[in-house]
Amino acid sequence: MLIRQTVLYLPAQLLGPLAQLAAIVLWTHWLDPLEFGLFTLALATQEAVYLLFLAFWSYFLLRFLPGADRAERERMDAIETWVFFANAVLQSATLLALLAYVGHHWPDPGVLLTLFVFALTRSYCTHLAERAKVAQKIGVYTALQTIGPLGGLIIGWTWASLMAKGPAQIGPTQVLTAYAIAQTLSLLFAVPSLRLRLRPARPDPALARRIAVYGLPLAISGVLAWVPGNGIRFVVEHGLGIAAVGLFSVGWTLGQRACAFAAMLVTAAAFPIALRLEANGEKHRALEQLALNGALLCAVLWPTAAGLILLAAPLSKLAVSAPYLATTLSILPIATLAGLIKNLRSHFANQPFLLAQKTGWTLAIDVLETVLFLAGAAIGLRTLGLSGAAWGAFAAVSIGAALSFYIAVRRLGMPMPYAHLLRIGLATAAMAAALSLLPPLSGWAALLGAVALGGAVYAATLALSYRGHWGRLRASLSTTS
Hints:
The chain is an all-alpha fold. It is built from 19 helices and no strands.
């Protein structure tokens, strides 16, 4: 069931993140470091605003909407109305304050409107994608995950190409406008297909308390987890300025998003299966499913991170604009390691906490991780510059992940899939050895050939180690859920 569901979600997990990865590289050729820094700060701000004001509701619906009866769904509808209204008001106020802080003056109304529409539409695309996942509307989920990043890239790139022929040049405001347009189109397509019954009725107090107990710790945890991944840009801005953010963000974002992209290929369908098992009273099987989900995650994430680190130099030289190259070469390997650890914790170690509704435990670990990050990034930035800030973030997420895995296994009873992990580790090592033996690479053909070679070695080694399991895999792919 897990393999089949993963295949069904694959287009959504491929196209959107792939467009986001491409955008990071392509916009370095149109935006200078200062403009690129502003663009990435806008992206980071949107993610923080979503985590602060809407994510708690997304988490709650993902966990409890599948088992809700009609009366409870009506109570959820009433609360959702107020959540949407409050989210719009709070987002606008937060964005205004942040723009005033970064720009050191009150922003232009046009810039504020662009950022507000961009942030609001992107937040609701993320939230409604979770609603579509709960309803098993894979087509709607795919549209919400792909139209925004892919359409925004196409609109923005076309706009940039046209403007380059005239006296004006595209800037971060125009880039954000392109994404806002695409995200709006995806919402217009998706909303009629989802069950949304917004009505400003009086919220049910008991349900509101349940939402607060379950969702708010997760939202705070999300904001704290955001700090090492995205908040590091604000640390760099405070210490070295916005242009330094632009230089730092290319390598950092590529490493982070590449790992997130690999993780999302196999995580969309995983947790709902464990939830269904737990709802049927099969807690032990649900924990075993989480372990299997984690093994599948590692099977994709480990070789992706290893390959990106080994091929970071030729990839950066080919893809990244010259002003960003030196910083990208130093940051990308560290960012990839940090992204690897961050996604292992988010999509593997944290899953038993969600299943057991121990969101307060997750919050406590996130507080510790954030404190360590702030100290490590500040000290690293002061002593080693931009690479030091990256190493500080890596150290913080590593400690948080180690603690999360320890509690998930020892306190919450998740089994570790050691046999699977050993096979995956051996296959990753074989791939790394093959790539290390290659001569220096130059040109896209050589780089793509190296990727193909590494993938072939990894797949062949993994297939050999699982040679006794192929019959069971074919049966799982043909099974209907």
